[in-house]
Amino acid sequence: MPRIKNVALASVATMSIALTGCMGGEIPSASAPITQTEAQQGAEFHPQLLSEFGGTYQGPQAAYVEQVGKNIAVQSGLGNARDSFTVSLLNSPVNNAFAVPGGYIYSTRQLVALMNNEAELAGVLGHEVGHVAARHSQRRQSEAQKNSLLGTGLAILTGVVLGDSQIGNTLSKGFLQGSQMLTLKFSRSQELQADDLGIEYLTKAGYDPRAMGTVLQSLADQNALDARLQGRESANIPAWASTHPDPASRVRTALAKAAGGTGTTNRDTFLTRIDGITYGDDPKQGVVEGRQFIHPELRLSFTAPQGFYMVNGTRAVSINGQSGKAQFSLAAYNGNLNTYINSVFASLSSEQQQLRPADIKRTTVNGIPAAYGTARVTSGGNSVDVVVFAYEFANDRAYHFATITPAGNGSAFNAMFNSMRKISQTEANAIVPRVIDVVTVGRGDTIQSLANRMAYDSGKVERFRVLNGLGTGDTLQAGQKVKIVVRGR
Question: pLDDT of 195-207, one tens digit each?
């Protein structure tokens, strides 16, 4: 959820299509230098991408990630690779990495924190360099054009909160998370080619090529752990491993291709350089604590329904469950809640389906002026209810939930609607970030004793193992460096 307090929630569909767009003419080969057209395209969208993913991370770790990224880019053989590539560390709590034409490479701080050595970092960045070198974005768009699949561009995007249903496509521009929508979805063959190129770059740079497989394994383990902790049956949340097809198969393939390979991992150097990096939500963007969302700068809090889980994004907070989906966000406010609600419904509409509430009702929630409206829509022969519930926090500031449920099941979110409250400055001041603390295992330290220091109320041992890439049979050795998550200052 953003720090800004009064901006419209703009659709990013147009930008996403442009990011994968064919730049005209024949697509260059993997060995061709980055063209001026490609560089201009990347430069045009770079600031917008930074905004979508919480901006650049402000910390000493960013310079280290940039250094490793540029060093691995040189291995691609692209002309002037070190100068042609821009490597950015993003202030996002989502495990993700991606690239766009023109040599712009991105990794989130969360994904870096999950890694356990420099070779894994180089492998992930090398994979993204491979996408750029092989012109995968351009090729995907070229294929889409040949097959007349452009339309809304959803065929080459991923992360639709509402799924692939008709109503999901209709409402996608309002319900898509910015950070989910901008993650490109490549074909299986393109992902495997990028893995191969990443392994090739690792080998050329003197890194252990098995790092590509181990980082993919950590990502798969993290997704599975998140699913268990959130009570979900699957790990299908936006992440670098899950948005790139078949991560389990890619782990096996990457490890097999790198079998027998040797090289450096620079584990201790890596851990020293990322020590102190923010882990999880940045309080400036709000934090998710179990079923509660708290935003210390906006001075508000709400609680998701039992059985639902939340994902905090830069533009919105998504709330997901079996009986419905929701997002919490903001839009421009002129002091009239009725106008505000109608504008949100309009933003969720399409040329094929206009959404209008049957009526708008006024109420008060914990002393906050509020209003809500419901529109019933037919989707694939089924009826669903779309509800917009808005709150006025000031004369020029309002926030809202937009929810979708099977018709007549809108009560699934009533408790959440009624949980919205303003928080005190004291409560806001108590919200501090979690950070990675790199510690040296001492004599007598165990996985259990170190896990007990993790700043969580549940799943401490499981979190510790996944964070440090430890299997169920792995143990610790005195003198070994490991990561724990603690409360920052």
Answer: 888 889 999 999 9
